[in-house]
Design a protein that fits this description.
The protein is of the alpha/beta class. Helix content is 49%, strand content 19%.
Length: 443
């Protein structure tokens, strides 16, 4: 019988698969203990209650989204996946989200109110008002001492400092905060001094933001007649005020960016519009001027003086043409007379004698030129022959270091060593001078 034997790693792997496939994401509440923060950025801890505990892990990407610092002894609510750490075979929870335990009820109330108001249609895009492109005055509902108002004022001053800003101070957390926000909205609507509102505060926990999740505040925002931008908390924070507002901004600075135009862009646009208006005005003036000139020209053509001028111009043109024709005919007659004169002169004896003299002069010049060429060629040939003769001269050979040896008795040139004997006297002729030598040996 074959036995299916599991290795430890196989067993742990299959158990992990069973656990992860059997449980959905769970909400688990408990107290943190044995908290560890290694350099990897992950955190490891145990979640316990009076009867039991379970190991938990939260990886770095999820931990970076936390809005509080986990500590030992803190009671928290986590949303986690059930799993198994195969390396040690330990059952554990992989935390995806963590919040202080008290936020659970607040979160549930938030979701219920959100769903109820959505069912009433308070979040519908059709109810949203358009944000004015260039507000005449902006109202800011916020705490006068918070960081949010500083961010808003800094951005507004940078983008378009000419827009007046009215600050309506309210509490942004605590029991009195919803009533103060509602009173501020009602006051702004009664005064009707702003055409854009910004409702804002900095980040915080869900409990800190509860004033902006109040139903009465939400309905006051809906009843408000002035376009309103909600910028509550950080980019990851969402409140009921964000959903009922005409526009939601992720941060107070972003709300100020959204509420104010860029003065540089507007200035550039004004310059562009001015250029376009000037160009169009110039083009229209040019068209009107051209039309006026055309009408004036047409009117001037109908004047009797113009007709007389035209007839006078034609008469002048005929006179010019007659003069040109007469001058052309006279020039032709002069050319014919000159041609006949030339032909007569060509037939006279003096002209023939002049031609013969010119022909004789040309032949004499050609003969002189031929004699000069022949003499030059002969000179060149003579120089070449002298050069060749000099090359073949014995003196030229001596100049190159050679010598001529003769018997002194008969002057015979010695070409063979056997033609002399020991003791004979010979004469050696050099390029410069002569030598009288006696033969000591013959080789």
């Amino acid at each position: 019988m074959n036995r299916d034997i599991y290795s430890v790693s196989r067993l742990n792997s299959e158990v992990r698969a069973v656990l992860e496939g059997s449980f959905p994401l769970l909400w688990v509440e408990g107290e943190i203990s044995n908290l560890a923060r290694p350099s990897s950025g992950h955190i490891y801890f145990s979640l316990k209650d009076p009867q039991a505990q379970v190991r938990c892990a939260m990886f770095r990407m999820k931990r970076q989204r936390l809005r509080f610092q986990p500590e030992n002894g803190l009671k928290v609510l986590i949303r986690a996946r059930v799993g198994l750490y195969e390396g040690r075979g330990e059952f554990q929870l992989i935390a995806e989200h963590m919040e202080p335990s008290g936020e659970g009820a607040l979160r549930q109330a938030f979701e219920e109110l959100k769903q109820r108001l959505a069912d009433e249609g308070l979040f519908d895009p059709e109810q949203k008002r358009e944000i004015p492109t260039l507000p005449r005055q902006i109202g800011v509902i916020t705490s006068p001492s918070g960081a949010a108002i500083k961010d808003v004022l800094t951005v507004l001053k940078r983008r378009f400092p000419a827009i007046p800003v009215v600050i309506y101070p309210v509490s942004v957390q605590g029991k009195q905060a919803p009533d103060e926000i509602i009173d501020a909205i009602n006051l702004i609507n009664r005064r009707n001094e702003c055409d854009l509102l910004i409702l804002t505060r900095g980040g915080g926990s869900l409990e800190d933001l509860m004033a902006f999740n109040d139903e009465a505040v939400a309905r006051a925002i809906v009843a408000n007649t002035i376009p309103l931008i909600s910028a509550v908390g950080h980019e990851i924070d969402f409140t009921i005020a964000d959903f009922v507002a005409d526009r939601r901004a992720p941060t107070p600075s972003a709300a100020a960016e959204m509420a104010s135009p860029d003065q540089n862009e507007i200035t550039e646009k004004l310059f562009t519009l001015e250029r376009r208006l000037r160009i169009q005005a110039e083009q229209r003036l040019n068209r009107l001027s051209g039309r006026q000139a055309n009408l004036q020209h047409r009117l001037s053509l109908c004047h009797p003086g113009v007709r007389l001028s035209q007839q006078q111009q034609k008469l002048d043109e005929f006179e010019t043409r007659l003069e040109r024709s007469s001058r052309l005919h006279l020039n032709n007659l002069k050319k014919q007379l000159a041609m006949l004169t030339t032909r007569i002169q060509a037939l006279t004896p003096a002209h023939r004698l002049e031609q013969m003299a010119q022909w004789t002069g040309n032949l004499s010049a050609r003969i002189n030129q031929a004699v000069q060429v022949l003499l030059q060629r002969k000179h060149q040939q003579l120089a070449a022959n002298a050069g060749n003769l000099n090359t073949l001269s014995p003196l030229a050979i001596l100049e190159r270091g050679y010598s001529i040896t003769c018997r002194l008795t008969d002057g015979h040139v010695i070409q063979d060593a056997t033609s002399v004997s020991t003791g004979d006297q010979v004469e050696t002729r050099l390029a410069k001078g002569r030598l009288i030598c006696r033969v000591e040996s013959v080789q």
